[in-house]
Design a protein that fits this description.
5 helices; Heat Shock Protein 90; six-stranded mixed beta sheet; 165 residues; alpha+beta
């Protein structure tokens, strides 16, 4: 059902093995904190441009990466951001990992799908925006942290309903 509601964009992972294969690393990892968010955003924008993404697709990925990394800082006190890319295919991945308490299972559906839902007194548009701006999102969350993988292609993929899955 979640696959349908998110138009195939969101994959909830039960184990690290369910996360996608990382593309080749393209930049040094960034220890996430309020002052370093800009560094990660610069890495994302640079690689999106190098991959040949349109301005709109590059800004969409930048928005998603900004929201995911800000969530790690606000909700988990920090984490690590890594940017990976495959120049041949024009695909960029952004990996955000933290060691916070994760998203509670009973709140997972609201936290990922409901615009405006928050447990931190913020605007609560982060994950909703991520799903609207990225081609694919993987989420692994639990008591020992959260990993979010964002993936954007040079050109938009065909809608899921057109594939033969």
């Amino acid at each position: 059902m979640l696959f349908s509601v998110t138009e195939g964009r969101l994959t909830l992972c039960d184990t690290p093995a369910a996360l996608p294969e990382p593309l080749p690393p393209a930049c040094d990892p960034v220890a996430l904190s309020a002052p370093t968010l800009r560094t990660l955003r610069q890495q994302v924008m640079s690689l999106a441009e190098e991959s040949g993404m349109s301005d709109e697709r590059a800004f969409d990925l930048l928005t998603a990466a900004g929201e995911a990394s800000m969530n790690a800082v606000v909700h988990a006190g920090g984490g690590t951001g890594r940017v990976h890319s495959n120049p041949a295919t024009g695909t960029v991945q952004v990996w955000i990992q933290d060691e916070g308490g994760g998203i509670a299972e009973e709140s997972l559906h609201r936290a990922t799908l409901e615009r405006g839902y928050t447990t931190a007194g913020t605007m609560g548009h982060g994950f909703w925006m991520i799903l609207k701006t990225c081609d694919r999102v993987w989420l692994l969350t639990g008591a020992h942290g959260t990993t979010i993988v964002l993936e954007q292609e040079r050109t938009p993929p065909d809608p899921v309903w057109m594939s033969s899955r």
